[in-house]
Amino acid sequence: MKISQLTSGASALQPSDTASPLSGPSFEDRFKGAVAEVNAKQQVADGAVEQVVAGKMGIHEGMLALQEADISMKALLQVRNKVISAYNDVMKMQV
Length: 95
Fold this sequence. Notes:
Blueprint: H1 3-6, H2 27-54, H3 59-92
Helix pairs in contact: 2-3
């Protein structure tokens, strides 16, 4: 089984029905979509590992799926860290 077959069910970032067509999706919607996408990539990586162990997939394809999931998780964590840092900076401001 190829990685493209495993990732065909992965969700993409799509705007919410509640977002205005002029303003686009809110940050919350985008962040939820990113979390869902990272989760899907993690599940694909888990499936790839099982396929490698079962001998149905090459080790290089399995490693690619694992690396893609790892990179997407690290990117999401960096976004989270920046949001928390910005929040802390705003909370330190004097009004």
